[in-house]
Model the fold of this input.
Amino acid sequence: MDMNDRAREIVKIFKKLKDLNLGILCFPEFYKLRNIGNEYIRTGISKKGTINIIGLKRIIVYNFGTEVECYLEFEPTI
Done:
């Protein structure tokens, strides 16, 4: 996947997160995901992990590699 393809995939993810209307864009955890996504776009180095969103009881699960995936999981304990 080249840099343009990576950028397109990451932008799709951010649009989907915005469309959920959870107000996630104002959380610092979103900026962390954005930084991880930008680094992946620049370097192409695979990144995989989770980010807890305190206050929304959600976890961002991301996998930026040959396939670009990101989704939210409900987690009542955070």
Summary: The chain has one domain: 3-74. Residues 3-19 form the longest helix (17 residues). Residues 3-74 form one domain. Strands lie at 47-53, 58-64, 68-74.
